[in-house]
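Lab notebook, bench 4. The sequencing result for the construct came back, and we need a structural model before the next group meeting so we can plan mutations. Quick request posted to the team channel:

Model the 3D structure of this chain.
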Amino acid sequence: MLSKKRIEMMRSRLSNKSIVIIVLILIIAVILLMYFLCKPYGKTSTLLESAHNFKIIDYPTPNFDPDSTNEVLGVVLHHTAEPTAENALKILSSPEKKVGTHVVIDTDGTRYIMAQPTVVTYHAGYSVLNGREGCNYFTIGIEFQGNTLEDPLTENQIESGIEYLLPIIKAYNISLTNIVTHQMIRTAYKEKHPESRCSGKVDITQTEYKRFMNRLHIKLSELENYVVGE
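Done. Here's the predicted structure in token form:
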């Protein structure tokens, strides 16, 4: 038979082991709780993070208004209508041409950042959005390399464009109705000023605009607690 002293020692050891086990269980429980509380859910975790999946190159344009700040109320989509991105960049960075933009997106998705969103660049020309003229001062310009009258936007261009826009849309609370094409704002200007002889614009085509906006709408809809602007 076990002595009383030995039995007490065994009980003490078992008690100590139980305490250790309980402490370990509590530690594990706390770690798991912190993990699940901090873990981003679903697909929303990376949508607004700058997880750059495409190459980004700084290519500043001198064609901007240094005395003004862009209100960033909308976005104008363009196509370059140039054979290569290099050609487009030369034009958009030429002081003689006096035209600029905020970003050029090449067919492989590479983004050439020509100005920050709050910079006023000369991308819109004669333009009207929501009845207001001078879109350069309250919109950013996105130039897709190529000509959408001839070829559609590439998948990489669409994905890169959305990747670029998501944090801007969130930061400036831009409604989807304020993401338009160069053609739309030029047409609105000509309707407001029927006497104007300024040329019309065709970029980007409505087909590619709808395609891009549909993809953007889907991405935004995946964001947790994000209300997509109508």
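Residues 33-50 have pLDDT under 50 and may be disordered.
Will bring this to the meeting.
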